[in-house]
Each structure stands twice: as structure tokens, then as C-alpha cells.
Design a protein that fits this description.
With 100 residues, the protein is mainly α. The chain is built from 4 helices and no strands.
């Protein structure tokens, strides 16, 4: 467990990046989004591209923050489930020991 946490900390494991490359539907949606963005950017003049780039930057910042929060919430939930499973297993062992 300690090694996994360290790998997460140092960025050697990146669940958000792995999921898009392994999930065909997400990959297709990402490609479609990028194509739409490129078409839109090609149609904009230089003056219009400045606010468009700012919009994309703000959207990326929002996405990163929401993904980080979702990861933390998922990790927390996973730890709660693991702790409950461990406590349930210990209680079952204690009950079995008392019945002997």
C-alpha cells in the first residue's frame, strides 16, 4: 500500500490519464471534441481567438480541479469501504473465536 501511495504522489500513476486511453467511448468523445474545437478555432479571426483561448484555459482549469476533487472523493470512499470490510472481517473472526 505504501508503494502505491508513493507512486500516486510522484505522479507515476495517473488514473485520469489512463482511463481516457483505455476507454474507447471516452477516447472517441475526446477526438470529436478536439475536432470541433479545431474547426471553431480555424473560423475565428485573430481578435476573436484571444477570448476563445481564455475560455479554453478556464475550461481546462475547471476540468482539472473537478477531476482532482472526484479522485479525492473516490479515494476516500474506497478507503471507507476497505476499512468497513476490514472491521467486518475482524468482527467475524472475533465472533468465531468466542463461539469456540
Amino acid at each position: 500500500m505504501t508503494n502505491t501511495i508513493a507512486e500516486l504522489w510522484y505522479g507515476n500513476i495517473a488514473p485520469c490519464c489512463q482511463s481516457t486511453t483505455e476507454n474507447r467511448e471516452l477516447k472517441q468523445r475526446e477526438e470529436a471534441l478536439l475536432q470541433c474545437l479545431q474547426k471553431m478555432q480555424d473560423r475565428l479571426d485573430e481578435e476573436s481567438q484571444k477570448p476563445f483561448r481564455r475560455l479554453l484555459t478556464r475550461q481546462q482549469e475547471y476540468w482539472q480541479t473537478s477531476q482532482e476533487q472526484a479522485f479525492c472523493q473516490g479515494f476516500s470512499l474506497g478507503m471507507k469501504l476497505a476499512a468497513e470490510a476490514l472491521l467486518s472481517a475482524e468482527t467475524a473472526v472475533d465472533d468465531m473465536a468466542h463461539s469456540l
